[in-house]
Design brief:
Layout: H1 3-11, H2 20-24, H3 32-40, E1 42-45, E2 48-52, E3 67-71, E4 74-77, H4 83-90, H5 109-123, E5 126-128, H6 132-139, H7 156-159, E6 191-197, E7 208-209, E8 225-228, E9 244-247, E10 256-257, E11 261-263
Parallel strand pairs: 3-7, 6-10
Antiparallel strand pairs: 1-4, 2-3, 4-11, 5-11, 6-8, 8-9
Length: 269
Amino acid sequence: MTKVLLALLTCAVLVGPATAAEQDAEPKALSAESMTRLMKEMIWVEGGTFLMGSNSDLASSAERPAHEVMISGFHMGKFEVSQQLFQEVMGWDDSYFAGKGYPVNNVSWTNVQRFVERLSAMTGKHFRLPTEAEWEYAARGGQLSKGYKYSGSNDINEVAWYAGNSERRLHPSGKKKPNELGLYDMTGNLWEFCHDDADMRPYPDGPRTNPLVGTFEKSGSRRPKITRGGGYEFDEDESLVFRRDGATQNVRMPDIGFRLVMIGAARYP
């Protein structure tokens, strides 16, 4: 069992779902300054084909086999979502590690769905979580990929806060080197929710196009969700770019956050 899933079983009582007051908080209009910053930080990821997963001896059965995946173009957040933006949209922020410049943490997948719905309504844009395939494609550098084993480097210390340098705590966003696309902290700091259900069986053998395990429609499913990227308490081997993990939809952990994808628009600006 992976560390994250084990932690969910042993620690979920410490990080329960948002309170009724939090869930009912009414959003305010997004400020012009926040809208400008949000759009400026959405990085275009040109579509293309890549090898998802790995045939490495280090890969688990759930991370095999390496297989061809085609991805359509999309925008992705340069940074994990900030506490400031989350607070402005939701009216609350229960981050365990709180402070200026820090990404929001200690949020559930269910909280995130409410956030992206509100943000989309407030901006007129279509925001959502990345699919697992979109996430890995972007983490590998998309069409600019240099084949690194971590997102942006073969030296994890260049690009990530992880067990070897984090001092067991979260750090502000963007303090390490970005990857080939200009995305920060795709390895380490926080695990990042994806939209997909956490199906930990081996990948299908053969090419796929824009794969998604689950649905974008509201289904009532309570299946756990994929998390990617590793976190500040995880070691080098657990931070490899193909690593997969998962979390239940309602659990909130101090080492899990998320990153936005924006779709349905031509390259911006």
